[in-house]
Amino acid sequence: MEYIIGIDLGTSGTKTVLFDRQGTPVASATQEYPLYQPENGWAEQDPRDWWNAAAQTLAQVIAKSRVDPKDIGAVGLSGQMHGLVMLDKEGNVLRRSIIWCDQRSGKQCEEITEKVGREKLIHITANPALTGFTAAKLLWVRENQPQLYARCAHVLLPKDYVRYMLTGQFATEVSDASGMQLLDVPNRCWSQELLGLLDIDPALLAKVYESPEITGTVTKAAGALTGLAPGTPVVGGAGDNAAAAVGTGVVADGKAFTTLGTSGVVFAHTDKLAIDPKGRVHTFCCAVPGAWHVMGVTQGAGLSLKWFRDNFCSPEMVAAQGLGIDPYVLLDRQAARSPIGCQKLLYLPYLMGERTPHLDPDCRGVFFGLSAIHQRQDLLRAVMEGVVYSQRDSMEVLREMGIHPQEMLACGGGASPLWRQMLADVYGCPVQTVQSKEGPALGAAILAAVGAGLYPSVQEACQALIKVNEPQNPAPENAREYEKYYQVYRSLYPAMKESFRQLANL
Fold it and tell me: Please, which residues have CB within 8 angstroms of residue 306's CB and are 6 or more apart in sequence?
């Protein structure tokens, strides 16, 4: 048992990585698949594409590494959360999965809140009803496709469909199940009360495990397709952010990470259950047995920078192509030409509405303070600073809840050196990166290593396998300057809230 595998099922593609027992990548493979948007605001994917991608990338990494499959101790799974996978009694896919970013279920969220009560719903699931979560999607299918719903025998999450195809077992684990809005998050089990209130048959749901527990073993048929040895254990794994937490070592109190991907996430570990009664942040079970995580979400983090790049940075895009470098390197250089505060210019990153802390689908992006003095680099830096201020909003909610991270990791494609320094200055704490770039795939593999008995606990596995780079420390003079602008930033949303609503209703 010298090797472990992590499979990370993302929205754009699946990445499978084979690691040795020291956590060093030996071989990796990625396969992309399509996203379907049959109507505005809808988002679907075909679960069979996920399985094909997982099977093919597994076969590729085993072939490339020339590892004896019998030396692979276990497989761990990470995946995009909240997606609704519906199977009939024979295990066949009934419809394309309605995935995490689909927005069609607003009416069903209102129905859930009405039937359960907002306070009780947050007490049980630790979160308000949101369109992203699985329960509302399931109710949408029941209301709009009743004949299909009547044929449904199993409801799974995206990575758990891959598990079913590998093992033949219907299983999930607590971190991903937390995002279905059917789990009793404090007690880490399905809520029979909630299922009763929503008239959902408990038999539809899979057995719930802790993340490092073995949930099944690879079948002979799956082994023939993937190259895995039949009988190889498959552990629970984790939802994408919970797996990223393991992959960055955020598995103990006082640790947190910030992701600057398409969306932005501030994720903090807590050994003591903490729920925001206002529902501004998510509380989920984490991949460490008996612990939880609290997570604030900015909808348009890296998306804001990509939007600006694609629409206003053609010279940098052309220059980067000629130099053979990432265009974001040139964007960093441009943004660094503008001073802190961007000559009194602020940006609100609400291109897709906002979750934390506003829970407002109607708010939209704003440049505030624009004047004739401003140049393109000022707008570019304002976008980056605005995203950091939105992440600070999440940190402030965590602090209200008694969660005070002392160590902050940064991850995600957008976490450039300039952006990390902004985070350190605005948060007022050091920001580090991990040496490994594998993120959720490494987290899934670490959970597999614990399940296979290579390490006694998730914390000890992380301590052995994860190495961090030198921190970027906050500069006090920068922090003081940012604080002035952050206080103005905080005042803008309340002042514009009603205007956002009016605009949405035009």
Answer: 262
pLDDT band at 361 (very low <50, low <70, confident <90, very high): confident
Q: 34-43, 107-116, 405-414: which has the highest mean pLDDT? A: 107-116
333 C-beta neighbours (distance < 10 Å), count: 12
User: pLDDT tens, 112-139?
Assistant: 999 999 999 999 999 999 988 999 999 9
Let me know if 360 is a catalytic residue: no
Could you identify the residue written with the tokens 């830096």?
381
Q: Please, what's the largest Cα pairwise distance for the chain?
A: 68
Alpha helices in 168-313 (DSSP H): 174-177, 192-197, 220-226, 240-248, 302-312
Which secondary structure element, helix H or strand E, spans residue 116, and what is its range? helix 106-116
CB 295 within 8 Å of CB 251:
no
Q: 82 near 180, Cβ under 8 Å?
A: yes
Tokens for 78, please give them: 């990470």
Tell me the DSSP string of 245-269. Answer: HHHHT--STTEEEEEESSSEEEEEE
At residue 217, the 3 state secondary structure works out as strand
Are 166 and 234 a contacting pair, CB within 8 Å?
Answer: yes
Spatial CA neighbour of 160 closest among 172, 152, 168, 177: 172
Name the catalytic one among 240, 378, 393, 425. Answer: 240
Q: Distance between CA atoms of 379 and 393, rounded to whole angstroms?
A: 21
Structure token pair of residue 432 = 């580090």
pTM given for the model: 0.89
Give the list of residues 6+ apart from residue 65 with CB closer than 8 angstroms, or none. 3, 18, 26, 27
pLDDT tens track for 216-237: 999 999 999 999 999 999 999 9
3-state secondary structure 417-469: HHHHHHHHHHHCCCEECECCCCCHHHHHHHHHHHHCCCCCCHHHHHHHHCCEC
